[in-house]
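pinging the channel bc i need a second pair of eyes. not urgent but kinda urgent?? the chain im working w is below, pasted from the shared doc
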Amino acid sequence: MLYVNFGLAVVESSPSNPTLLILSGLLAIALALIHIFAGKLRFLEVTPRSIWLSFASGVSVAYIFVHILPELNQYQETVTEAVGETLAFLEHHVYLLALLGLAVFYGLERAALVSRQRNQQAGKGDVTEAGVFGLHIVSFAGYNALIGYLLLHREEPGILSLFFFFLAMAWHFVVNDFGLRENHKHAYHYLGRWILAAAIILGWAIRAGSELPKAAIALLFAFLAGGVILNVLKEELPEERQSRFWAFALGAGIYTVLLLAL
């Protein structure tokens, strides 16, 4: 059982605790609203890339490298205890899942780019095909549901830890929303964003009503780490983005200092 320091009080980190349920639920709703309303941030749709998107990418990457990746050793111990000798030949389970997360989302991005090129060549506009749109939305819905679940399942106790996770994911969702909107255009605006918003609430609700084994959470957290890294870098690295390195570095630097001070 986890315990959260909240001022001078000690708040039990359990789904049955009303304070934690209400707080995490409000944060889940806030993350969902980002997907619903991020498209109204028209000032982000500029070239060179908006400094705010680059800043957001830096924050997300800082959270993964400073907070999540160092915890993978602990998660590895959890997984090793759970699987015992059955999968002993897989010595680095969580790192393999992080690699898989990166590879899966790289494949999704490549599929979207190839699909857009095919439609452009066929004179159907710069937008993905219906099948690729569906694949993207299903994949990111699972991704968002996992983040919603983790709002109520924090390995590190503390309300501050919860808020740092929320802030990092909030910035990350702004970046993701921008990329998905660019790939899928109207289909994302009229359908995709609503599915992704609902997925966050669904993930939170699943955790509020039940709990997955710790080993499963460790593997999912590792998968999330790989996915976040890829989803950030794919937005920052393409030359046509003309990304703002100084804004990316500033976001990463500021959030790193805050995390280390936590």
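so The mean pLDDT is 80. and The beta strands are 2-6, 9-13. — does that match what u expected or am i reading it wrong
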